[in-house]
Amino acid sequence: MRRALARALRGVADASDQPILESAVWTYEFVRPGPREVAGDLQGEALLALADLDHALAAFHAVRLLTDGHTSPMSGQPALTAARVLAATDAVLPLYEYVMRHAADSPEVAAECLRSLSGLPGSLLTSLFEELAGSDDETVLLGLFDLVLPHAERARLRDSLATWLRETRFHDIFRYVVAAVVAGRDPHLLPMLDDDIAGADRSKQDTVDEARRLLPGRY
Question: What is the pTM assigned to this prediction?
């Protein structure tokens, strides 16, 4: 009920509602067994409503909640909403710090942060890829490739991407990356399809062959 009320305040709240929303952002409630914290969704909704009233104040709370130790492992709240609030105001430094230091805490939050780092300098993009490409979590890997594949300096990662594709055991992610490269007709990354990125893996080779058939003529 309180979560629904906080959501209903979005767009209609005024300054008199700010103390209520800020109180909700500070709310923690624990239930057993565990005990387990259950107010993360309320905090997330209140943070969004607070951001409508005071972006700066909401951003401070968002930084605090981004690495909150009580973030739900199931929903990713309130950290997931905190990441979105920071991204909406281009406050990307805390998001970069999260993926470099806390990516293992919540894959969903890490992926959300990664997708918001499109302005990351190329040299840092390289180090970030080296840091996270070895992750065993597919959600983190999807977020990483959603950052890398459209990035302005993706060409510098061509060899690293080819190596990752050759060595990965995540066939679904392999298909996703190959499909994204083909769909984007990327002149920097398309030549990877001529590399031996499939190795001896027949399933990977079938994916590459199918992708090649989608390309008009020579790319």
Answer: 0.90
